[in-house]
Amino acid sequence: MIWVNEGRDQEARAILELAGIDSDKYRIWHHNSIYVHAINEETEESVIVEKATLEVVKSPGALAGDPGHKNNISSSL
User: Fold this and answer.
1) Are 26 and 38 in contact (CB under 8 A)?
2) How do residues 7-49 score in pLDDT, each as one tens digit?
3) Closest among 33, 12, 7 to 24, alpha carbons compared
């Protein structure tokens, strides 16, 4: 079982809300100084929000530092 500090959980939920995500539908999976990672258990959708910009990251590959995986940068079509 993953234990989350209640204060940190509230902070993570506030970050999701500021990013435009309904935090009631998501379970906080991981929360660090850079990202909040949450999972919708009904749809199994995973969402990662960058705390500094409140930007929703589409791919966990962005965690490796590759900005090409963020949703605001389009790759060549």
Assistant:
1) yes
2) 678 999 999 999 999 999 999 999 899 999 999 888 888 899 9
3) 12
Give the total residue count for the chain: 77
Coil, strand or helix at 46: strand
As given in the structure block, the two tokens for residue 32 are: 């660090």
What is the C-alpha to C-alpha distance for residues 74 and 77, in angstroms, rounded to an integer? Answer: 8
66: buried, middle or exposed (CB in 10 Å: 19+, 13-18, 0-12)? exposed
Nearest to 51 by CA among 10, 12, 6: 12
* Two tokens, residue 5: 């500090």
pTM over 0.70: no
